[in-house]
Write a structure and sequence with these properties.
Blueprint lengths: L1 E2 L10 H9 L2 E4 L15 E3 L6 H13 L4 E5 L9 H8 L14 H9 E2 L5 E5 L7 H13 L3 E5 L9 H10 L7 E6 L7 E6 L12 E5 L5 E3 L2 E3 L19
Parallel strand pairs: 1-4, 2-3, 2-4, 5-12, 6-7
Antiparallel strand pairs: 7-10, 8-9, 8-10, 11-12
This protein binds S-adenosyl-L-homocysteine (SAH).
S-adenosyl-L-homocysteine binds next to helix 4 and strand 10.
Length: 248
């Protein structure tokens, strides 16, 4: 199980690259294979569309059972809303040797584009209600908002689901001030990356799609010179001499 990072070649780890090169068969969502296409060569590729995840993983497990070395490819990290869990579930008790190769996940790629918003405790929540009922998602949003977690939103929108960001905003507005910074990053870690910081109250102005990750600040998060910062608490200790400049 190989996480190939957020898309740019610079964020593909050497271990992930080696695993991709060593594999005889690749299994992955066709939509992101171009990111690693130069490594593909003559390898057999198991692709099905976005909805064919279970079938694709089943075929990957079959190939592994037949003795092939298979790389199951996920974007970001394979174990964060990726394929690693499903593959391990399908493998069950079978004694096939497995390696999970970690990758740069969208949360940290987006955070890097914004500044340092994840310096304190944070929660990741996927807004996809394909596999999780919305009531569960809403309860987790509510809990994260109440507990003052910086909150990363994956899968904010798809063609079928348009309301997730608006509903999340409403929930957070019950617990955080309207000026709370929200970082919105599209295609993090790629040449086409776009990053902007909104206020929670203005969040509906932000363009959001399937390739966007949102980071909602906690009660301490602020913006200085366009950089989003969640303080860890050093400023409360003696010896912290930097002047804290409030902005945004
Ligand atoms: N395994 C992946 C997450 C897959 S879920 C990882 O660890 O990053 C798909 C969601 O990830 C997208 O809807 C989006 O919210 C986020 N995502 C993936 N790649 C991204 C990128 N390059 N920039 C911003 N968000 C991204």
């Amino acid at each position: 199980m190989v996480g190939i990072g957020p898309g740019g070649a610079g964020h593909l780890t050497p271990a992930a690259r080696r695993a991709l090169e060593e594999a005889e068969v690749w299994a992955g969502y066709a939509g992101f294979l171009p990111a690693v296409d130069e490594l593909r060569g003559e390898k057999r590729v198991i692709t099905t569309g976005m909805t064919g995840e279970v079938e694709r993983c089943r075929r990957a497990v079959e190939a592994a059972q037949n003795g092939d070395t298979v790389a199951v490819i996920s974007s970001g990290d394979a174990g964060v809303y990726g394929m690693a869990g499903l593959v391990l579930q399908l493998l069950g008790e079978r004694e096939i040797s497995v390696e999970v190769v970690p990758g740069v996940t969208a949360a940290t790629a987006a955070a890097a584009a914004l500044g340092a918003p994840l310096m304190h405790d944070f929660a990741c929540i996927s807004l996809s209600d394909l596999l999780t009922p919305w009531e569960t998602i809403a309860a987790r949003l509510e809990a994260a908002a109440r507990a003052d977690f910086v909150t990363v939103l994956y899968n904010p929108k798809s063609k079928r689901r348009q309301e997730g960001v608006a509903r999340s905003r409403e929930i957070f507005l019950r617990h955080r001030v309207p000026a709370t910074p929200v970082g919105v990053v599209r295609e993090a870690g790629r040449e086409t990356q776009e990053a902007a910081i909104y206020r929670l109250e203005n969040l509906l102005e932000a363009p959001v799609d399937m390739l966007t990750t949102l980071i909602i600040g906690n009660s301490q998060t602020y913006v200085a010179a366009g950089r989003m910062i969640t303080p860890r608490g050093y400023e409360n200790k003696t010896g912290f001499n930097e002047e804290r400049v409030m902005g945004g």
